[in-house]
Amino acid sequence: MVLEPILCPACQSSDMVKHGTSKEGKQRYKCRNSQCSRSTFIHQYSYRGYLPEVKQQIADMAVNGSGIRDAARVLGISPTTVMEELKKVSALNAS
Prior knowledge:
Blueprint: E1 16-21, E2 27-31, E3 40-42, H1 52-63, H2 68-75, H3 79-94
Antiparallel strand pairs: 1-2, 2-3
Helix pairs in contact: 1-2, 1-3, 2-3
């Protein structure tokens, strides 16, 4: 049996505790680092739209002029997910 250390995706800390389960039955974790910007996360997402790499690709494709439907088709996610992520990115840039 191999134990894989769980690292926080925001601060890379290994100080984690289990924090219940999601509706799909996935294990939820909580970061104990007080300076961490992210409190809970799921280690293995079942939907690709939640992955940080996909979120970055959405922003990159938007900067390069790809449309919402085009980005959704290429990344294999919903156009609604693309729109919501672009709204979040534009709100962060406006502040």
